[in-house]
Structures are given as C-alpha cells and as structure tokens.
UniProtKB/TrEMBL annotation:
Natural source organism: Sesamum angustifolium
Keywords: ATP-binding, Kinase, Nucleotide-binding, Receptor, Serine/threonine-protein kinase, Signal, Transferase
Gene3D superfamilies from the UniProt entry: Galactose-binding lectin, Phosphorylase Kinase, domain 1, Transferase(Phosphotransferase) domain 1
Protein name listed in UniProt: Receptor-like protein kinase FERONIA
InterPro entries tied to this protein: Kinase-like_dom_sf, Malectin_dom, Prot_kinase_dom, Protein_kinase_ATP_BS, Ser-Thr/Tyr_kinase_cat_dom, Ser/Thr_kinase_AS
SMART domains on file: S_TKc
Binding site for ATP: 493
Family annotation (PANTHER family): OS01G0750732 PROTEIN, OS05G0423500 PROTEIN
PROSITE patterns, sorted: PROTEIN_KINASE_ATP, PROTEIN_KINASE_DOM, PROTEIN_KINASE_ST
One Pfam family, short name: PK_Tyr_Ser-Thr
Amino acid sequence: MHLSPVSLALLFLCFVTFIFATNNPTPSTGDVSINCGSNGASTAHDGREWLGDVQPKFSSSVQMEGSSTTSSVIHKLISSDDSVPHKTARLSRSRFSYAFQVNPGQKILRLHFNPAQYKGFKSFKDLFSVEVGPFTLLSNFSASLFANALGVNSFVKEFGINIEEYQQYLNIIFSPENSQSLDTYAFINGIEIMSVPASLSYYYSGGIGVQVVGKSPFYVDSSTALEIIHRLNIKQDSVSSTANNIGNMFGIWESGPNRKAREIKNITWKVPVDVGFKYLVRLHFSEIGFKMAEIGGLIYKVHINEIIVNTNINIVTEKDDESSMPWYRDYIVIMKGHKQEGKRELLICLESNDEFMDGQGPLKGFEIMKLSNPDNSLSSPHPLPPARDSSHWIIKNLVKVLGWRNIIATLTIIGLALVNISIYALLQIWEASRTKEENKPSAKAERLCRQFSLAEMQLATRNFSDAHLIGKGGFGKVYKGLIDNGRETVAIKRQKSNSKQGAREFLTEIETLTELRHVNLVSLIGYCNEHGEMILVYEYMASGTLGDHLYKLARKSENGSSLTWKQRLNICIGAGRGLDYLHTGHPLIHRDVKASNILLDENFIAKVSDFGLAKHLSRSRLESHISTKVKGTFGYLDPNYLMTGKLTKSSDTYAFGVVLLEVLSGRPALDPSFPVYEQNLPKWARENISKGKADQIVAPNLRSEISEIA
C-alpha cells in the first residue's frame, strides 16, 4: 500500500498523540520517615514521628515487593536517643524494594544503617546494591565494612534525587550481591524522603549553569543524582539562613569549632572525597560579611583546590537582589582519577588580610555533593579501615592472646601475613584469567565476526589520534579509521577498559549484531579484545547521527536543521522498520533508542545502532516483560519502565515516540536552556496536544514546508 506525504504526516501526528496524550494521577502524599522493621508509629529523640513498615497504615502511598524479613538488634546496646530508627531493620537474601508515592520535585533521600547482629543474619555478611530509578546509589556495598572504617556504630547515606511530573513513585531497590557464599544479604534500618524548597535546589534549569573551578560552566540538571558528602557550619552560633532552613529540615549540618578572629583569617578545610567524580560545592555567604565587603571593610579570597573562586569584589558585583537571600554560590570541582585510587582531599581555603568583626567572616558554611557519573552511578570502593584495624582478624586475635613480646607469636603473625599475601596474589592471577575468559565472545560469534589485532586498530586510527576522533560519551570514544590498506573506511568504538559493565555491553553487542541482518541496522564488521582493550568496528556512516542534524548542527545555522520534511519522514520510516525487525523477526528489546543512536549513511538511510543494553525475549513470552535494572537515557525512558523496572517492547516504542517528537520539533528530549515547563519535550508536547496546539510542536523552519505538502 502506497501512502501519500499528507497521509504520512497525519499518521505521524496521530502516532505522537496516541503515545503522549496520557494523564497521570497526581500524587497526594509528600515527605515520609520509615522506621524499617517496626510496627506502628515511633517518636525519635528530636520529636519527629517515624512510621513502621510492618502492616503500615499508609499502604496506599507505599508499596513493598520481594521477600524480606524483619528483626531487632541483638547483642548490642543502643541508647534511647539512637533507638529510632536503628533498633529494627528489614533484611533479605534476595531482592526487595519500596515504592513511595511522592510529589514531583527534588527530594533528599536518607538511608539509615546500623550494621549490628540480627537474628538469622551473620555480621559482616552484608553486601548489596541500592538503586533508585536509573541510578545506582550504592554498589558492592557493605555497611559493616563502612562503619568499621569510620569507627562508628551507625551512619546515614544521603542523596539528592529529582522526581519528574510523570513519575508516580520513587522506587528504592535493595539487591544482595552474588557471592560464592549464600549468606550475603541486604538490609535497611530507616528511610527518609524530604522535599527540597525550590529556592535551595541543587539543579539548574537555565542561565549559565554552574561554574567549574578553572573551566567553563556545567549544567547540573534533573537527570543527575547527588550524594551529600559533607555539610559544615563554620560558626556554631551564627548559621546562615540557608543552613538554618536545611538544618531545620534535616538536622544534618556538622558544626565546626568556635575560632578566634585571628584563627579565621586563614583557614583550610580538607574533605576526603572519591576520585573519578564531579562535585558540587555550595558556599554560603553571610549577610554581615556582605555588608562589610560592600563598604570596603573586608578583603578576602576563597580558594577551592588552590584556585581562587570568590573574592570580596565578587560578593558585591555578583550579589542578587535582597529578596534572593539566603545567598550562596555553587561551583563544580572535578576530581580526576580512577575509582580504585580511593579518596583524595578536596580543599576549601579562606584567606584574608583582615581580622573579622567578632569572628564574623564572609563564609557561614559550605556543602559538598557528589554528582552521578555518565553510568548513572554514585558508588565507590569501600574506604580502608583505620590503621589500628587494618590487620586480618586472625592476626589481631593472636596478638590479643599471645602478646607482642612472644617471639613465637610474632613469627606466626609474619607467616600468616606471607600466606595471606601469597593467596591474594594467586587470587588476583586467577581473577585476571577468569575475566579474560568471560570477555571472550561465543564460538559462533567468533566464527561470524572478524577479529582485529590491537596493532591493526592502532594503524587504522594512527594510534587513536584525536585527529580521527568523531564522537565520545560515557561508553568511550569513536574514531574514523581505515582498514585493509586504506581500502575501507570504518567507525571504531574504543570502550573504556576498566568497567565490568562495559565488558558485558561489549559482549552483548557482538553476540547481538552477529545474529542481525537488516538494511536499517548498523553492521558490525569485527572486534578487538587484546590486552584488555574492548574495541568494536562498524560500517562507517558518513552523515553522522540523527541527533547531530536535528539540534547540534542546527544550532550553528540560523535556519535550523537542513533536513527537509521528506528526509525526516524517510529517516523515521527506516528507523521504525529497523525496530520492527528487532521486535518481530528477532525478539529483542533495544533499551536505548534515541536520536544519537540512529545513524545516517551518505544517502541519509537510517540505521539503528548501539546494542550494548539490548535484552532478548524468548519467543514463548513475546508479550511478557523482563524485570531488570533500569538502563537507558533520560528523556527517552518509558515512565512505566522507570517506575516498575519491567521492560517491554513498549519501552522501545515510547523512546521512538520521543525521537519522532525530536524530528518534528528539532529539539532534544531534555533541554535545560528552555524554561522549566518546556525542558521535558514529551511533557511539553503532550500539554500542547491536549490544548489543541499541536502545530506549536512543529519546528518553525518546517511549518511552511508541511503546509505546502498539505
């Protein structure tokens, strides 16, 4: 059947309307404090009420899934001030989750842990991950090891999460990690969810973004998760109004010691943070400090990691209007390095030539927040235990029994240490060989797919020269290369080699693409996995990505994208055929459909690419779903998948609907440069459609062309 351009345009708009003209119920509940493992209501020492999760009265606003049990702490004294929420816990050796019905907006999520002994669960056997939507907050996490390293009995991990308008629930998933020991488990003592006022939000919806120390501005938008690392009041009896607001809400500000004026003149704070992440540093300024700077009575400099970020001149020239108080400034600090390096100190220094009046300096306090990385992860290696606790428990017990003066005991300790080192070295060798074997494709894939040597890849890209770089992202970098003595041009994707998740996606893509053959799917030519490298070689797509043409290249042109309406329709039809082939010919869910994963050849033929997140469905359950970790790209995630973790073919259909909207509007799925109500493209489009203003979705440079066709 042949369809005219007019029919295609009408079908296009109907399809978009069908996908996006949905109404979500508005959540009726807000903040909540859960005393996990308890029944009924409890009152903490600060007067706040906590609700139990055993037969909860608020079952309409919170749901629990998975098998779990509850227990009270045994063999451990807990003070009455600390009993809520640390006296009881919810535990499980299998995955369990909470789903809270909350209002949209930014939330502070606090997870309370008391790694004590619980009935039926051994100490130091807790090892688990915590996920919220697409974010991994904790991974391979042991609360016991963490508390032992800090020298505390209990602790709180605190995070910042944004709830979009279309999200009905905040899902928190606890998953024990796989281990040779079947005793590993996950647990939680308390959960707090608190709304953050818009005036104190850590996210930026427009403007110039957050200043990166020593570099260009950076946007912290609602697609980022935060972990609150440190908050400090510099002066106990004079907390900034900002700090008071947050402190009254959460009670989590650490107070610094009172200092004399001469001590405050030059002071440096050192905060250990994980490397390999960006950090949002919020400096809170005092009103009296501002007034002193305004009249020239205060000269100071604030350094972050030895770079000046603020002075008495800045505080006056950059001051907001009076109604904008409380007054603060945000900065992004990049702590480069591999996660395995552990922690490094983030330095904040206040320097002045003046003694401050009554010890009142320009700074009232500061906050440090870790930002999620491109993998949507906040997890980091376990901290090392203090020096006094770093020995193996056997060695410590021997020392206690025999004493250091006993020569035999000393020799025994040395022998055990050597055995420990030898076993560790052998385990490392075994793990390396096992990892190498696991990263090897199947025999079928090896037979159907060409294997390149690392030397061939280096030759093709001139040793991965930046001159050949054509793209990069969280996965790694893409280069344009020449193989077979320069006869064939290819695209070479070099993935990051230090990621287990990357290794899984590398193998998934090889296994998937060797089985798929379609004109609208990108072709895999071969791969290289020598010397820890994970490199994929694809056919070269001369016209780049659909996303490039829709909004990246279009921004450089006053007239917008050069793609005509007819070209856009053909691209959408081609990409749709590719997805249909995946869903019907091969029961496969792509899981990351987006404009940047639709490539265009020299004739602008669309080809779907990047199958690293793909999931197979068995033919016997094509209409069913897969329960899996939420993966994909913000803005394209199906709300149902985001809320439930249940992946279906409709998840791809929703994402493709977002792509269709991008094609029609020439805008990205999420754009922080627009006003808040227009940043989310699906939401903005749905509102226009419901108001009968579907024409407002169409890019201005397309309206006349579509009118002519109609």
